[in-house]
Each structure stands twice: as structure tokens, then as C-alpha cells.
Design brief:
Blueprint lengths: L6 H19 L6 H8 L13 H24 L4 H12 L4 H17 L12 H18 L9 H21 L6 H12 L17
Helix pairs in contact: 1-2, 1-3, 1-5, 3-4, 3-5, 4-6, 5-7, 6-7, 7-8
Length: about 210
């Protein structure tokens, strides 16, 4: 009898191999030959499950977003307001090895999108996904009296997202970055003008 292959499982294994190569050697090293070698198969075997390397990148990008979102939900838990914003940003910013590897995938994918916008078709919009979560937590912070009522919610969310994206890009291109505490401090600096209590303007979010 012919061997029955779980198509979805094989796709997941290919994406896992891709993420392993990127995390170890960077996105430029994630060639079809390198991915196949990680799996112990011939390069041609990949194309039974994906149409192109761009399709592998797209699947890996979606996986990273899903993985990050799951971590955000776990980290925020019962937290709300500023504590939830802090926890969310800690999972997005490239502060540790794991999130740095994810930034490599995300930024590498954006580079491909600049050439082929169709790669975005059917994928999660990170600005909507994480923006909605941050917007909800900003609104909670206003409700709880942590932020002033007239906070420009949409603009503040855009700034936090831009901060995240900017640090991901800088981390990938090798630009020297401030240490993790300072990067988290920048989040506090963005929130500082809208704090309801003047006495809490100093210091950083709790971080991890």
C-alpha cells in the first residue's frame, strides 16, 4: 500500500525546519536546500507541499504571528490596562533570543512583500490583530484611572506598534540597540504624557 502522508503535518514540519534555520543562521540562509537538509529530505520534496519559497515564508510568518499572539494572551491573563500593555509589548519586542528569531522571520517576510504584495493575501494583519488588543488595554487604563480620559487612543496605539516594528527592523539589520530595560523604558516614555498621576512618570514598566 502507498504510504499515507498527513499533508498538514508535513507542511508544519517544513515550517518548523524553516524557523529552525532562520533562528540559527538568519533568513538569508533559509534556502530550499537548507530547509530540506534540516528535514533530511531532497529539496524537491518541499514542493509537494508548498508552491514556492515565498509560500514557506508566508506560512512561517503566519505561524510567528499565531505564536506571538498565544504568548500575549497567556502573558496578559487577568491583567488589564498598563500592566497588560507592558506584557503585550514584552512579547512583541525583540528582547530575548526567541523574539529576535521571530523578528528575523517577520522582517524577512516584509522584504518579500515589498516585491510581491500578493503574499499578504489571506494573512493576518498584525496592525489589526495586535492593534485591537493594545487599543482595548489603553481603554482599560482610562477606565481604571491610569491614563487621562482625553488620551489619543488610536495615535498612541500606532506609536506603540511603530515602536515594535522599528525595533524588529533595527534588530535584524544589526543596528546597535539599547538594552532590554531601555527598550521597555521607551514604552513607558510613550505612555508618560498621558499618565493620570504625575508621580508615576519615572521608571519603566515591570518587564520580565
Amino acid at each position: 500500500m502507498p504510504k499515507i502522508v498527513d499533508h498538514d503535518q508535513r507542511r508544519r514540519e517544513i515550517v518548523d525546519a524553516f524557523l529552525t534555520v532562520v533562528g540559527r543562521d538568519g533568513p538569508a540562509a533559509a534556502t530550499s536546500r537548507a530547509i530540506a537538509a534540516e528535514l533530511g529530505v531532497g529539496a524537491g520534496a518541499l514542493w509537494h507541499y508548498f508552491d514556492s519559497l515565498d509560500a514557506v515564508f508566508s506560512a512561517a510568518y503566519q505561524r510567528v504571528l499565531e505564536r506571538t499572539t498565544a504568548r500575549i494572551l497567556a502573558a496578559t491573563g487577568d491583567r488589564r490596562g498598563l500592566a497588560a500593555i507592558d506584557a503585550t509589548m514584552c512579547e512583541i519586542l525583540p528582547l530575548v533570543r526567541g523574539t529576535l528569531a521571530e523578528a528575523q522571520v517577520v522582517v524577512g517576510f516584509w522584504g518579500r512583500v515589498a516585491i510581491n504584495r500578493q503574499l499578504l493575501t489571506g494573512l493576518t494583519d498584525v496592525a489589526v490583530l495586535w492593534g485591537d488588543q493594545l487599543r482595548r488595554h489603553v481603554e482599560e487604563a482610562v477606565e481604571d484611572g491610569e491614563l487621562v480620559p482625553h488620551v489619543p487612543t488610536d495615535s498612541l496605539v500606532e506609536v506603540l506598534l511603530c515602536l515594535s516594528i522599528g525595533h524588529q527592523v533595527h534588530a535584524v539589520v544589526g543596528t546597535p540597540l539599547p538594552d532590554a530595560d531601555r527598550r521597555l523604558g521607551l514604552v513607558a516614555d510613550c505612555l508618560a504624557p498621558w499618565r493620570a498621576t504625575a508621580g508615576v512618570l519615572s521608571g519603566h514598566p515591570t518587564g520580565r
